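Annex B, item 7. Sequence and structure tokens for protein A, then protein B.
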Amino acid sequence: MNGVQTSLGATSGTAIAFFLVFISATLAITGWAARKTKTTSEFFAAGGNVSGLQNGFALAGDYMSAASFLGIAGLVATSGFDGLIYSVGWLVGWPVVTFLIAEPLRNLGKYTFADVVAYRLKKKPVRIAAAIGGLTVICFYLIAQMVGAGNLIKMMFGLQYETALLIVGTVMLLYVLFGGMIATTWVQIVKAVLLLGGATLLALLSLVPFGMNPLALFAKAAETYGPEVLAPGKLVSSPLEAVSLGLALMFGTAGLPHILMRFYTVPDAKAARSSVFYATGFIGFFYLVTFILGFGASVHVGRSAITSVDKGGNMAALLLAEAVGGRPFLGFISAVAFATILAVVAGLTLSGAAALAHDLWVGVIRHGQADEKEQLKVARVATIVLALVAMGLGLLFKGQNVAFMVGLAFAVAASSNFPVLLLSITWRKFTTRGAVSAIVAGVVSALVLIWMSPTIQVDLLKNPTAMLSLKNPGIITVPLSFVVGIVVSLLFPEPEAEAKYAEVERRMHLGAEDAEPAAAE
């Protein structure tokens, strides 16, 4: 592509046609799912009837966000090799989920990760703290997704920001309100197939001039931008910063509420493990493809053309689609990006509704005594509230640079949810006070340190310096949360919780067969 000639920002009939096909198909799925969603279990966990392969696709669909697709391709296009740190950081979190989290989560919980933490601890304080931690992560993630959705759709389809938010919020509300987890799962499966297929086709088209050889593409990039494009150190130059970012991305994956919730949709622990295996394969393949997309964009489109359209490089994949496949292919990839946003927002909203309805209303306010009809009603009210909050946050942060909020969501998840989840299933002496203290320490320290970081003080507030040199606080906040949880537990022992650990171990490894989880109280 020469210069910056692009049809991005103009109304595209092709993009709208693909978009309408996707919306029609997924709303038809929602109508089918609505007829099958009669109970709370079906609303929050698809009745536990999702297979390992289906959940693997849905996990990949839930996880591969627009930030992954557009953001990483843009980072690689503008920074070269260093963009890979995000791919690797996000990907290596999945073995942690496979070996430490998936099986205990499926065997001990019901709808949320708070079920697992509260299994042998005092349920009320733990559920309140876990809900605060989970909702904090969801809110930051939702802001990033909704603001990103408004800006992307405005650029891709030529729609107004507010119109784009209204469309995303309304369609997402229809998915979750009527189809619950069944509809959300199938929307994520459809989205994962479209995204994997579209990204693969885009990568293949970008390799055609190079004889389908990625090494020839990388060599061309090195010839154009210098050999340093294939070396690390441009995007993240400090080893301490690299480790801190890696910790947040890796352990944050294992603490995201909408990802953890997916393990309750499968029938048993074996299916939970197999679903992570499939998801890791799909996500790993996708990140390798985005690497080719990034270099493909830098060669076929050019860095100056990419940054002239969007300073952050987020339009690199779309510009590449237009360069190698013309406007029809750009329309298809734009519709895929829109589907990506919808699926992730639906997953976030459903997990937020579970925290509000299951953890706070049923677990705290009603002390586990709400009947099925009341639980389902509260779940749907919570879904409407969260959809309105998501649209409100999108409007509130219009025009703001909210890219840091994805990092903030991962930092809070890694610093609060992951430590308490891991300690509750692996350490006999972990107590209620330890769990609550660890969550509070993780959330507060992550928020404070990110406020003090260059991300806020220099990049957002335009101050000359920041109080903290680290952009990502994970190297401080993750260990801090573990230390606080351990020290408080040792200072204030809880013999009842320690006595129940043997039951946790048995159930964690053997499952509960047909028994109702105790955490449902």
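Protein B:
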Amino acid sequence: MTALTFTLKAELKQRVDVSPLIPDRLADRASDEIGAELLQYGNRQVRADELFSIEGQGSDRLVFRGNGKLDYVGRGMSRGEILIEGDAGSYLGMQLRGGRIEVSGSVDAYAACEMKNGEILIRGNAGDFVGACLPGNKKGMAGGVVIIKGNAGDRVGDHLRRGAILIEGDAGSYLGSRMTAGTIAVLGKVGDHLGYAMNRGTVLLAQMPGFVPSTFNDCGTHTLGFIPLLLKGFEGLDTRFSEMSDTLKRVRRYAGDMCGLGKGEILVAV
């Protein structure tokens, strides 16, 4: 499949909203129509071809030569694929409904914010509020899979409702705060206030956290049959978690947060 490639003509002086540049809108467009797309650049609107050199025709596969000031990449996308060579800004894959986004570098805050479906692969680090909701809302990510090869910031999965967030590095504070359902798995270390006000859902940790909140009850060690099935479900994705389905079966279970509904669980591999 021929890709439609966007390369910045010069260093950005302001942040730019590239949400209009998604396969849903561009797949059947001619190159001059794509160049005429208006993008919010700071406090004004500019044509896409003022900022980017555009190569290729309309396609379901887009490539951005990345920059940390590219915000809203793939917002609301329902099909196709976006590849970002380098970093991306905030709100990557916000309200994503389908398709796939891959970032070779790192991203800023609110990646996968209110995401509904699809796949996001971040090979670097991610900022705060991965899979969370916008401020004032109470419905975070509701489906799909997010894979982070590096570290993630604070408040990952805040108000998470469904779907999976797989972190192969470390995660910050308030991991899984106010979760309603869904799964978060972390191979590295986690910060303070783990599972704060968690209602339901599962946080799966490969390492014992430094501190388990007193509002979580220690339920002892168990062999849980659903864990290999859960991990096997990630086969075909670029994640180390899919390789653990034969080895990670026995866990120590903590139930809570008793300050909330208390139906969530933190599972720690033993």
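Comment on protein B: The chain has four helices and 17 strands.
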